[in-house]
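Researcher: Structure prediction, please.
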Amino acid sequence: MHLLAHGGMLPMYQPPVDGKTISPRRKGVKQGALLMLIGAVLVPVFGVMSGFAPGRLENVFAFFAAISALICFLGGPLRMLFAAIFEEGAKPQYQFSPRPNYAPPAIPQARVSALPPAAASPAAQWRQRPQTAEIVAPPSVTDSTTKLLDKEPKIE
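Model: Predicted structure follows.
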């Protein structure tokens, strides 16, 4: 597909000039995954702290556990989904450039047919199909036994 689109030129790999850069899409997916991993740590920590906290602190830690669960486990996948759909991906790291010793072939202007010209007269040696209706079909194997049923038995 690349060869046809670029006139027979193969892509040549060009290393990135500005060093190692991460595309916004990949950065967003990483942020969403990191948010989910932080939630996997924060929610159990706040849950354990709310279990051991006395009095009003129990409610505060339970509130933080619920809020962190919502933010991390709902926000993480949503961030990844947003990055995958709307943000720009990585640019291709190759470009099409002609090789120094390669010259594309000249395309002929006149279109030549691949088949030879049609014959003026059809082939004369063509034989006709045989008439198979003249051949008599062989009798069936059951014909002779059925004829025996039609005969009346001799009574003696």
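Model: Residues 2-16+23-96 form one domain.
Researcher: Thanks, that helps.
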